[in-house]
TrEMBL record, chains A, B:
Native species: Haloarcula mannanilytica
SMART domains: HTH_ICLR
Protein name (Swiss-Prot/TrEMBL): IclR family transcriptional regulator
GO biological process, one term: negative regulation of DNA-templated transcription
Residue span, HTH iclR-type domain: 11-70
DNA sequence: CAGATCGTTCCTGTCTCGGGAACAAATTTA
DNA sequence: TAAATTTGTTCCCGAGACAGGAACGATCTG
């Protein structure tokens, strides 16, 4: 089940345009013919779509090469502000990064995955692949599992059903029942952990930011096995995470 | 001349989808009927387009309300990196902000306007309306005029022809010929200034970042009339701006 | 200067897609 | 509680949009 079959029909020409946008996102600079070949459409089709995109100022053309315009940056700013109280999240994450020296991330659920809204990097932090806007599976990350644990029951169950629980390391949870047990455990103690389930050598702790009967997202601390002992994780690190989550919670609760 | 009549046709359905995206960018959370009314289309039409957008994971739906997904953030990251050497620009801008305590901005030309790629704010900086991704006219800003001065001759002329040279303050340049003279002056001394031409009480200095026979963009220092005397502008401030521009120039010249 | 490749334009037939109406579900009002 | 709105969704249909192919210049390459 890869395609999310929602209600309604799907518009072909819109799909083409959106596919062009996706192409322009990843490929540095692209020309008409290259896009036509890559997307399997005629040159004239791509040509007209690019013309439309340029007309709407979403794409810029510099001597034959096309790229997304800076309007995307403006859109990104708006998107950030539409999610809870972005400033509070950033402040708390920065503070945590400063204090722990590790990687702090804030993630929310989108389309059955964790999407990273913000990332703060401490002094001695390890670099991870994930960056702002990137996605990760939910079942193998502490952020994902923590969010799953605090979403409304039915929503959680529907998400689990649609997951394929791919294995990434020997620790990855790959059965739905094991995942359900893990979520119950997270609810018991109030925070989630990732014990090398997504990437070998990396551990995380996550605390949920609740919002009424659902969950806004979660904040996590990530670090190497060497510095992330069981004692530290279940001690100071989990406390720091839940503390930050609480501050965010208090500041967003009354704003929407 | 508002619409940029380029070559080729324009795709209606794509326009609808892109208009929805624009709507979602500005309005916080929107539902089917509201969008239908605002864009002047039937509910079924909007419905199908939203379905397409959600299918492509560019839009998220949370109990009936739609918003742009965090994929936009990912796209924004890519866009930044596609423009010259973003890291160098950021470093130089931050350094300048630190040193001067004022607002530093880096802008490029897009669709006949200045778009801001990065903004660094010093300690005692005045807040301006413009943010990352936002647009400003070229004829009334130091960034815009400086970029115009260093674009290829024919490109500059075509841009001037298509501008409407709106007046914002008593100092705004509103005639094409006066603008051409100003550009020549900028080329003479190597940097451009904005003497309360865009906003009352604000002055700027900008230096171009050249790139072969064209210009990548420009970097500017903005501040209040009180601190930006003629002496300072034509002395240390213009030197700081051109210095930073040169560093960026050197670092981008060999990578693109 | 030939050959190839590019972007652009024009045309045509098919099937897409926008709109309207009817329906169902949720929300509001009395 | 029931009636009355308003919502999101589905279905159908005919007009016309739009994807593709071919042909044309323009540009690049050797």
């Amino acid at each position: 089940m890869t395609t999310n079959e929602g209600p309604g029909r799907t518009i072909q020409s819109a799909e083409i345009t959106l596919n062009i946008i996706s192409e322009l996102q990843t490929q540095d600079a692209t020309r008409v013919t290259a896009l036509a070949n890559r997307l399997g459409h005629s040159k004239s089709t791509i040509h007209n779509h690019l013309h439309t995109l340029e007309d709407q100022q979403l794409v810029v053309r510099e001597d034959g090469e096309y790229r997304l315009s800076l309007r995307i940056l403006d859109m990104a700013m708006h998107v950030r502000e539409q999610i809870g109280n972005y400033d509070v999240i950033r402040n708390e994450a920065d503070a945590l990064a400063e204090e722990t020296g590790e990687i702090i991330q804030f993630g929310i659920e989108e389309h059955g995955k964790v999407s990273y809204l913000y990332k703060a990097t401490g002094e001695q932090a390890v670099e991870t692949l994930s960056g702002v806007g990137k996605q990760q599976p939910m079942h193998s990350t502490s952020l994902g599992k923590t969010i799953l644990a605090y979403l409304p029951q039915d929503r959680t169950e529907r998400l689990i059903e649609s997951m394929d629980l791919e294995r990434f390391t020997s620790n990855t949870i790959t059965s739905a029942d094991a995942l359900r047990t893990e979520l119950e455990e997270i609810r018991q103690r109030g925070y989630g952990i990732d014990d090398e389930e997504n990437i070998e050598g990396l551990r995380c702790v996550s605390a949920p930011v609740e919002n009424g009967d659902t969950v806004l997202g979660a904040i996590s601390i990530t670090g190497p096995l060497s510095r992330f002992t069981d004692d530290r994780i279940h001690g100071e690190l989990s406390e720091l995470a839940t503390g930050a989550a609480n501050v965010i919670e208090l500041n967003t609760k009354f704003s929407g």
